[in-house]
């Protein structure tokens, strides 16, 4: 029903709630530590990069507005094997946000300075969650799950409130910190002072300081395509507006953080910056104590908002995967008064708890997200390029100009982002893929391994690409964790050439399967007026 769907405002708020999570509390400090004042450039370049990626997905997302859409796209052009790999990676990238945000909230709580909150100090032990911390994080994930358990309407109303709160507090924080202290000299007066660790540090910051991790949450909007009013236009608007607003906030936060730092900290070297709760600690240093209290509270609330948004998106992703015929149909069951995928929600809850038990701090969990997110994003430009060849007459409510140039460029940039994440992240990506493959082969065996040679060839490019990136990362520049056999910036050129070759192999390995017929049928239901 219409009253159960998200309007444009709720769609934008949903996107903002996903994008502005725990990243704003840590990102500015981590980026400044890696790149100094040049971290500002890293946030700008990161926003441009993700906007280019988003434009590719906007075209595809408006062509196929359905629940869990990100788990379906590759199936349409390359068959079930590659589709399963990418849907598995996409689901993990969304699901892993739940334990990350729950762990982030729990870690923030463990630093609360008030006497009445001393009981929270037992949540962390030696940099990891204690037993009490695990219980707290599990309780938060249960809250994420239950809010989504009772319809998209309740989730949207709760999310709208938190989203506004998450936007207002960073703005208040910036105004008060600038009022308390802001030194333009912290930016440096020479190129070396502005960029103390060279240009390579900018790209390291993009890949490992939470910048890409923060921005790529735009995909949550696409995964709720069927729950959005006028999806043909509001998916595009929701992504553009939420990305633009969040980019302005993140860039401004980085400028304020650098300018507000006391001279005593800056003179000690950017690499020596060490804050447990960056903006709260900075407020205390500048004697704005009530602001630190507000930030501590926000540091608990903000991740909850993201957790709720990603709980909805991850459940939509999992519940859509049985359409690919390689997971139990019961996961797609929405036969309840609120039309929510409750079984998928409960499975997500259980897997999230397992992830908390395996990875007991924010840093370890973020590696899981980075690996699975980057590989899942590789599918977008390949699908977009393939569909321009396979379905030139498909309805495209948002047809991106110059897609034949944008798709290979975006594919190359995502490959570079994997490289920026530093070795051995690329190896971890391959491990994540392998974990999901046995499930596929069990179901494909039951179906008689139909068209297996064709499906295997359509997927081979991805395996070659990931192995190739792993090797290049290993022998690449020491700036990015390699053995420096290929020095910076020649390593970038090697990846660009290698990735371009792989891209054209990928789009030429697409083929017409039964899933393409599903895509044609779904696309035929898209109305140009956006209804």
TrEMBL record:
Keywords: Membrane, Transmembrane, Transmembrane helix. It comes from Companilactobacillus huachuanensis. It is a multi-pass membrane protein. It is found in: Membrane. The chain crosses the membrane at residues 41-60, 81-109, 129-149, 161-182, 194-218, 239-261, 288-312, 343-359, 365-384, 405-423, 429-445, 457-476, 488-506. Its main location: membrane. It comes from the Bacteria. Pfam families: AA_permease_2 (PF13520). The keyword Metal-binding does not apply. Coiled coil: none annotated. The keyword Secreted does not apply. InterPro entries: AA/rel_permease1, AA_Transporter_AGT. This is APC family permease.
């Amino acid at each position: 029903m219409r009253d159960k769907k998200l309007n444009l405002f709720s769609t934008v708020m949903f996107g903002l709630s996903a994008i502005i999570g725990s990243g704003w509390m840590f990102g500015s400090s981590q980026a400044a530590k890696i790149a100094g004042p040049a971290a500002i450039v890293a946030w700008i370049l990161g926003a441009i990069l993700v906007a280019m990626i988003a434009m590719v997905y906007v075209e595809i997302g408006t062509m196929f507005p359905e629940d869990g859409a990100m788990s379906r796209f590759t199936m349409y052009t390359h068959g079930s094997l590659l589709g399963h790999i990418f849907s598995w990676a996409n689901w993990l990238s969304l699901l892993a946000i739940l334990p990350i945000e729950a762990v982030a909230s729990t870690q923030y709580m463990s630093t609360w300075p008030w006497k009445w909150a001393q009981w929270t100090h037992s949540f962390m032990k030696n940099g990891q969650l204690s037993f009490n911390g695990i219980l707290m994080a599990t309780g938060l994930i249960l809250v994420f799950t239950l809010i989504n358990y009772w319809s998209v309407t309740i989730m949207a109303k709760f999310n709208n409130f938190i989203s506004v709160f998450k936007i207002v507090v960073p703005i208040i924080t910036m105004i008060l910190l600038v009022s308390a202290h802001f030194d333009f000299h912290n930016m440096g007066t020479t190129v070396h002072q502005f960029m103390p660790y060279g240009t390579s540090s900018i790209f390291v910051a993009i890949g490992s300081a939470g910048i890409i991790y923060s921005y790529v949450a735009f995909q949550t909007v696409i995964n709720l395509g069927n729950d959005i009013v006028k999806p043909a236009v509001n998916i595009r608007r929701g992504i553009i507006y939420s990305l633009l607003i969040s980019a302005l906030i993140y860039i401004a936060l980085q400028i304020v953080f650098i300018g507000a730092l006391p001279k005593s900290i800056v003179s000690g070297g950017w690499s020596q910056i060490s804050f447990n709760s960056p903006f709260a600690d900075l407020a205390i240093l500048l004697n704005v104590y009530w602001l630190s209290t507000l930030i501590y509270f926000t540091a608990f609330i903000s991740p909850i908002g993201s957790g709720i948004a990603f709980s909805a998106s991850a459940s939509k992703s999992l519940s859509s995967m049985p359409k690919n015929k390689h997971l139990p149909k019961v996961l797609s069951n929405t036969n309840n008064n609120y039309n929510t995928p409750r079984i998928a929600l409960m499975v997500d809850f259980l897997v999230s708890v397992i992830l908390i038990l395996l990875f007991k701090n924010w840093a370890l969990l973020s590696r899981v997200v980075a690996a699975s997110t980057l590989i899942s994003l590789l599918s977008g430009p390949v699908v977009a390029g393939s569909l321009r060849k396979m379905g030139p007459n498909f309805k495209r409510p948002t047809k991106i100009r110059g897609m034949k140039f944008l798709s290979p460029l975006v594919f190359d940039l995502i490959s570079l982002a994997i490289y920026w994440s530093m070795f051995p992240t690329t190896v971890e990506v391959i491990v994540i893929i392998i974990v999901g493959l046995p499930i596929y082969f069990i179901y494909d065996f039951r179906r008689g391994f139909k068209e297996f040679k064709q499906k295997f060839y359509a997927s081979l490019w991805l395996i070659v690409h990931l192995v190739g990136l792993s090797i290049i990362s290993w022998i690449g520049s020491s700036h990015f964790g390699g053995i420096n056999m290929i020095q910076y910036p020649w390593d970038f050129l090697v990846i660009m050439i290698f990735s371009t070759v792989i891209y054209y192999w990928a789009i030429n390995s697409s083929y017409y399967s039964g899933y393409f017929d599903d895509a044609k049928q779904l696309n035929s239901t898209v109305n140009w007026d956006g209804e």
